[in-house]
Amino acid sequence: MNKKGFIFDLDGVIVDTAKYHFLAWKELAKSIDIDFTHEQNEQLKGVSRVKSLEKILAWGNKTISETQFKALMLKKNEEYLSYIAKMDDKEILPDVPKILNYLIQKEQPISLGSASKNARPILEKVNLLSKFNAIVDGNDVSNAKPDPEVFLIAAKHLNIKLENCIVFEDSVAGVQAANTANMISIGIGKKEVLHEADYIFSDFTEIENSFIQELINR
Ligand code: BG6
Ligand code: MG
Prior knowledge:
α8 (about 170-180) links the parallel β4 (about 165-170) and β5. This protein is of the alpha/beta class. The longest helix is centred in the middle third of the chain and has 19 residues, at about 65-85. The protein has helices at about 20-30, 40, 50-60, 65-85, 95-105, 120-125, 150-160, 170-180, 210-215, and strands spanning about 5-10, 110-115, 135, 165-170, 185-190, 200. α1 packs across α4. Strands 3-2-1-4-5-6 form a six-stranded parallel β-sheet.
């Protein structure tokens, strides 16, 4: 049977956690007198925790000590985890299980490829952890997206050639990472934003099983 490697980003692809990242960053920014907007939050999609805080400090024209930086990172994550604690399978984005189940039925290997260090607990909360053959997340990489490292490791775990991997991503950095890795990139979100992707859909309800089957047959 034809096998391809299917790699999914987490935040914004499987679950809509951007709203929780927003609330946690907003609270944190407020505590150091920085204003934080929804537009700025958009720019943090796919961006690692460290890089996100660096950006927020730059927007607010603030410099802080390394100790303070570490404390703020911890504080943000504690706040974020308080939202995650309340998550359940209702927060899975529409038709994600349909696609995952189709891939499993077709015996296609599936990996997570996420920048988040909270990926495993989130997948556990929404009851999807068992659907994945491999989990590659922020704990496994030293280079954040748009560096392709996370997807290269995922392909290795799945034992699938790079050009036979397909990546689902909602962030520009993630699409760029997939393209650099020589993988097929599927953007989930707005065409104006994700125009570098090979294919773009607003969400998984627009993706038919026949499209997935074509990818498998390629
Ligand atoms: C990405 C999110 O998936 O993970 C970013 O899009 C987030 O917004 C990054 O900053 C790191 O996540 P975490 O859970 O390790 O803070
Ligand atoms: Mg994402």
